[in-house]
Design brief:
With 257 residues, the protein is of the alpha+beta class. The chain is 36% helix and 17% strand. The chain has a six-stranded antiparallel beta sheet.
Length: 257
């Protein structure tokens, strides 16, 4: 998907050319379904601005009151073990590899930034557990999102959305990009990359008896601000910055001593 200037703003990646892909994604879907049945969820995880379905996150986070980057809360030892098992599964690793290859192909500079930023964070704090920038597991079993933007994501960044489950692709689950007036067919096992902080998006409901789960790989904007501010919060940066540094921050120019 390109804008009027010909710049790529979204990628309908689909599936890799692999005869075994559907079987791998079916197994990953079964693992997610089992995980949902074994986990416990907070009210905030079950009812949020994206919809009414359990959604859990794995990764590194900064913001929302934290003083430095840290690991997202798991809400229990059992939940932690289940999520660690999911991200260690071969199906999830293959999915991440596919999304990364598409990302690098269509937005090489942004992909480089996504790699460099967490590397800088983990190098500055060896005690921090190395995770992804961020991953949401939307655990359904009927994941229907309301129109929303993801305001805590990097504004110009892409997130990779993968649909999983058992549903009739022609009768439901289409992705809607409201600002672009697009309704996109989205089969199970397929991936789409969009700037989710900028584009209002949602998905069409599925039919009774069907199941839909999704995996969202996303960039938390707070982590980029932390590195941009020389490993400190906006508040701490502004408290000690010179007028020139403050001007540079407002104009997007990095000035470091």
């Amino acid at each position: 998907v390109v804008d009027k200037a010909g710049c790529i703003i979204a990628v309908l990646a689909g599936k890799p050319r692999d005869d075994n892909w559907d079987a791998v994604m079916t197994k990953l879907t079964a693992q997610i379904k089992d995980a949902r049945g074994s986990m416990t969820f907070s009210k905030k995880q079950e009812n949020h601005k994206r919809g009414k379905f359990p959604s859990v996150a794995v990764g590194t986070l900064f913001g929302r009151g934290s003083k430095r980057p840290g690991t997202m809360a798991f809400y229990g030892v059992a939940n932690c073990a289940i999520l660690v098992s999911l991200i260690a599964s071969s199906g999830f690793r293959r999915l991440v590899g596919f999304a990364n290859s598409i990302f690098q192909c269509f937005a090489a500079n942004m992909f480089g930034l996504y790699n460099k930023n967490p590397n800088n964070i983990f190098a500055s704090n060896p005690r921090l557990t190395r995770w992804f920038n961020g991953v949401f597991f939307n655990l359904g079993p009927c994941t229907v999102t309301w129109p929303h933007t993801d305001c805590h994501n990097l504004a110009f960044g892409w997130c990779a959305i993968t649909a999983l489950g058992n549903f009739d692709t022609d009768c439901g689950r289409h992705m809607i990009l409201w600002d672009l007036g697009l309704v996109i067919r989205f089969p199970p096992g397929s991936t789409i990359l969009i700037p989710s902080a900028l584009l209002t998006h949602s998905n069409v409901p599925i039919q009774p008896g069907e199941e839909h789960y999704s995996i969202i790989q996303y960039p938390s904007s707070g982590l980029f601000r932390w590195v941009y501010n020389s490993f400190q919060s906006d508040k701490d940066f502004m408290a000690t910055a010179t007028p020139e540094m403050k001007t540079g921050k407002c104009t997007g120019v990095v000035i470091q001593c």
